[in-house]
Amino acid sequence: HVQLVESGGGSVQAGGSLKLSCKVSGHSRGSNCMGWFRQAPGKEREGVAGIIAGSGRTSYANSVKGRFTISQDNAKNTVYLQMNSLKPEDTAMYFCAAGYLGPCLTSLSVFEYNAWGQGTQVTVS
User: Fold this and answer.
1) Residues 94, 81 contacting (CB under 8 angstroms)
2) 82-94: per-residue pLDDT in tens?
3) Which of 43, 72, 79, 90 has the highest count of CB atoms within 10 angstroms of its CB?
4) Are 74 and 9 in contact (CB under 8 A)?
5) Angle at 94 between CA 80 and CA 28, to 5 degrees
6) pLDDT exceeds cutoff 80 at 118
7) Residue 79, pLDDT above cutoff 90
8) Plot region of 112 (φ>0 → left; ψ -120 to 50 → alpha; else → beta)
9) Which strands make up the sheet holding 68-73, listed edge to edge?
């Protein structure tokens, strides 16, 4: 049973930074991709950043390119999301996800993931 636990969320002023962490446990093999998603009230969940296993290729939503960076530490089974130059529109619940379904193409689609964390709130004012 795969478990993903996010941490690092909080409240920050516009222009500030936060670093989210996602600890993955309970898996017998590595995922095909790891991703960060966010969901604001009344909006659909959107892919923010993803990383494909093996190639290490990263992808970002246009709205966060140049400001957010996804990385992973395989030894710690942890994925990170460094968020800089935060804006009020970045306010949302952020979710970590792991994909074990098959090859990931974009790593930003919810349909590529079948394991989710409980989310961590990020508020930018």
Assistant:
1) yes
2) 999 999 999 999 9
3) 79
4) no
5) 55
6) yes
7) yes
8) alpha
9) 3-7, 18-25, 78-83, 68-73
Distance CA 48, CA 50 (A): 7
Burial of 33 (0-12, 13-18, 19+ CB in 10 A): buried
Report the distance separating Cα 125 and Cα 36, nearest Å: 21
And the tokens for 12?
Answer: 């920050």
Tokens of 20: 């989210």
Paired strand residues for 20:
81
Residue 75 φ/ψ, nearest 5 degrees: -65, -30
pLDDT of 1: 85
Per-residue H/E/C for the chain:
CCEEEEECCEEECCCCCEEEEEEEECCCCCCCEEEEEEECCCCCCEEEEEEECCCCCEEECCCCCCCEEEEEEHHHCEEEEEECCCCHHHCEEEEEEEECCCCCCCCCCHHHCCEECCCEEEEEC
> In this structure, how many other beta carbons lie within 10 angstroms of the beta carbon of residue 118?
11
